[in-house]
Design a protein that fits this description.
- With about 90 residues, this protein is mainly alpha-helical.
- It has a domain of about 50 residues.
- About 65% of the residues lie in helices and about 0% in strands.
- It contains 3 helices and no strands.
- Helix 2 runs antiparallel to helix 3.
- Keywords: Membrane, Transmembrane, Transmembrane helix.
């Protein structure tokens, strides 16, 4: 009377599925830097098209500083082989 029960694969949330769409199953340094670049472009466009020049210039400068810091962090993580180690995403 025992039934064979097939295990369903673990369900991921919509947010995690969206991140996997951007970075892939096994994120790499290239996907990390690409996402940082896309977010930077979106914020700069939003600030430039919606705000007045003195404020938009200041906020654009801040976004560029944060982007440079993120690019440096990505480069350091890549040098430390953080992106090269495979991860088990199932828990």
């Amino acid at each position: 009377m025992t039934e064979d029960v097939a295990e369903d694969p673990p369900q991921t949330s919509g947010f995690l599925a969206g991140l996997e769409f951007l970075t892939g199953d096994d994120p790499s340094a290239g996907s990390f830097l690409l996402v940082v670049g896309m977010v930077t472009c979106v914020f700069i466009a939003a600030f430039q098209f919606t705000l007045n020049p003195p404020i938009s210039t200041l906020l654009t400068g801040l976004v560029l500083v944060i982007a440079v810091i993120s690019f440096i962090m990505g480069a350091v993580l890549d040098m430390l082989n953080y992106f090269d180690t495979p991860r088990n995403l199932e828990r």
